[in-house]
Fold this sequence. Notes:
Blueprint lengths: L4 H16 L10 E5 L5 H14 L6 H4 L6 H10 L5 E4 L5 H14 L5 E8 L3 H9 L23 E8 L1 H6 L7 E9 L9 H15 L8 E3 L6 H15 L6 E2 L2 H4 L6 H15 L1 E2 L23 E2 L4 E8 L3 E8 L3
Parallel strand pairs: 1-2, 1-3, 6-7, 6-10
Antiparallel strand pairs: 3-4, 5-11, 8-9, 10-11
Amino acid sequence: MCGLRTALFAASAARLAVDDASLDVCGSGAAIVIGTSFGEMPAFVDMAEAWHRGGWGRPEPRIAAQAPASQLGVAAAHELGAAGEVITLGTACAAGNYALGYGFDLITLGEADVAVAGGADSVNRFTHAGFHRIGALAADVCRPFDMHRDGILPGEGGVALVLEALEHAQSRGARIYAEMLGYGMTCDAKHPVAPDVDSIARCFALAHRRAGVSPQEIDYVCAHGTGTKTNDLVEARAMHAVFGEKPPPVNSIKSMLGHTMGAASGFGAVACALSVSLGFLPPTINHQVTDPEFADLDLVVNRSRNSAVRVAQNNGFAFGGNNAVTLFGSVR
Length: 332
């Protein structure tokens, strides 16, 4: 297995996931699906620095070999010894949900009995500099939906979930956290970085239809909630467009984890599965004053809340207009 940081996050998360599932996929046809925003971006940073110092030229082969993002899925597959389909998806900050949707399709189409799906990204200079240049970095902490929110805080990590057909999980006596009910995907096709209310609302509605649930059945929304002025406002407007005047309780775990880029919606999926399994809503921390724009949202702030969750919605949006929403529920 390669020793690169983001690949190590992916491989470690995959190992932790199958161990938690008491599942050995070595030699099996289990699929590996990993989402990412930047892959092994530090390798590209190293190449750029070398060119800056010494002028244009052929990159050092050792560094160039580290660059392909495909290594994330391969690293996880090597760690587990899985012999099924392996793919890395580069759909930016919605990539974790894209990976889960891809794994969901493999299971429901009968192309795999098990899929290990999630995301991974690592902090690097390129990411930090890019968000700084567009004025999207928070000065101190990430505080989604707060009147004084001023941007994101980059985070890093890897996340993976084990997806199985229900019959497969029950036959081996697996501990089931939640059922993945379905997903929806849309593309804004309008602006490189600005989210679009209508496209996001369509994504919500598509996910609900595919999962066979109505907006009124959803008990919790794990928001994309980056903490930027624009993203939080657009997401709230999309929720009102679909859920009406009183959307379900909402939180953003980015207030606690930072923005883990391609892993972000994978961590959101974990939060949703645990909310279904354990009956609680995680909080949005660092909250001080609710922005009046969100007065009609039921924000879970600073402290978790005990609550039965039958259906949870996990939002993921990304630059390029990539939107992906996954839905989780108690086993039906």
